[in-house]
Design goal:
Blueprint: H1 16-26, H2 28-33, H3 41-67, H4 93-109, H5 115-141, H6 143-151
Helix pairs in contact: 1-4, 1-5, 3-4, 4-5, 5-6
Length: 158
């Protein structure tokens, strides 16, 4: 196991929550053209379920980080590899939660053409944070991270 420092990684200067905010703001032009909003029953129910699930997932993961003294900000001090709770479903449940929140809010508006923004947000997260974080964790935890990565999918499916 090497002792690579976080500064050796180059994350985006935009943190994921701010990226989510930008993704949601990017939806405003189409929302304005579809005003007044009229989501269907399916969109409203699915959107609500995703928003609630995303909130639960992110709070659950954040609390596990706090209990293990792991920083929430990407590449912050990581004294332990968290592998329980939502980290048994995905190696990056907080990012899954952010994307689910984006999709859920899009569904709640009923402006389905805006779903492409959630896809773009997920692609950005993948390249700006997921892949560099995995290199960071592999360098920090070595074989333990490799074994964890073999058991648990990166997002929800691989």
């Amino acid at each position: 196991m090497t002792t690579t420092h976080a500064s050796a990684y180059s994350p985006s200067s935009i943190l994921p929550p701010r990226g989510l905010l930008l993704a949601l703001v990017a939806q405003l032009p189409l929302i304005a053209t579809h005003w007044p909003l009229a989501p269907g029953v399916f969109e409203a129910l699915a959107g609500s379920a995703l928003v609630v699930a995303a909130a639960i997932l992110n709070v659950w993961a954040a609390r596990l980080f706090e209990r293990q003294s792991v920083g929430i900000c990407p590449f912050s001090p990581t004294p332990a590899l968290v592998t329980s709770g939502p980290f048994t479903l995905s190696r990056h449940p907080m990012y899954v939660g952010l994307v689910a929140l984006s999709v859920g809010l899009t569904l709640l508006t009923g402006v389905l053409p805006n779903l492409w923004i959630s896809v773009a947000f997920a692609i950005w997260l993948h390249h700006a944070y997921v892949l560099p974080e995995e290199r960071f964790l592999r360098d920090r935890f070595g074989a333990a991270y490799d074994e964890y990565a073999r058991r648990v999918p990166r997002w929800l499916l691989e």
